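name: query_chain
kind: protein
chains: 1
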Amino acid sequence: MASLTKLQGGNFVIIGRAGMDMYPDPPGSKTETATSFFSCLGGSSANIGVAISRHGGRCALVTTVSDDAIGRFVLNELEKYSIDHRHVKTVAGEYRTSMAVVETRIEDHQSVIYRNGAADFQMTMEDVRAVDYARFDALITTGTVLAAQPSRDATFHAFDLAQDAGLPLIFDVDYRPYSWPSPEDAAATYSQAAALCDIIIGNDVEFGFMAGDFDHGLDKARDLARTTAKIVIYKMGEYGAITITPDDEFRTGIYPVEALKPTGAGDSFMGGFIAALSDGYDLRDAVLRGSACASIVVSRVGCAPAMPTTSELETFLKTNEGPIELSG
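structure:
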């Protein structure tokens, strides 16, 4: 396992999907009655890259997009957010870049995801071998990239190459059932990946899923911290998070906001948390900064464009009454 002090170099290689998000406009509109939509960059790995870059970090994305207008939209958006896309390959044929139609509303919220023939699953061994891992300070990936071949084997190969270069591995579980052939395959693959990683972030449902019993998710998180990982964060939604290391465990609360939508919090948390560790914050403060970033994003339209800058985060921390801890 690599030293986490390497994170302070602030240069990250991120593996996983990028796509297009479409939001019915104006905010609050339902998809089935909308006549206007707002488009922006989407996809968990791309969103994490934007979140980190908004705090001054540098990010390169490794993925595959379709050779069409949607794929070119994604490349243009990555350029706009200063995400290095030299390792974003285009693929021809019937593969398609992911698209999500997401409502900016809490009540009766709908998110419709289009991932038939997903282009990002076409990432290959050759694609990950083309990366010079020695240029970077950590590898970040989200779990959806493991859901199909050839991207699954390519990602595990990237883990090997990154570890050989001395990079810490950071894993966001990001379980999306619709992407997997079976729950059993997902649980086994996630457990295999988690055992290789230095930092693991997931919610209570995801850890329970990996444990094979939703009542034992926290036990799974604690076992990973005891045996292989350096930091495990067990998120519990409105009840905050439990952060576990081999030597310590602590609970943190959330920052209350008036949410516009339920999406984007996880990507924003990951970006804010990793950026804070990179900037030298201690673990508890890094978790709290990640939690504040999550709250900011659910109070804004979009995901990538909603990611806060460092200045916006500092203003929020000074004016918000949190963190608060709910019992549960």
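note: The chain has a mean pLDDT of 96.
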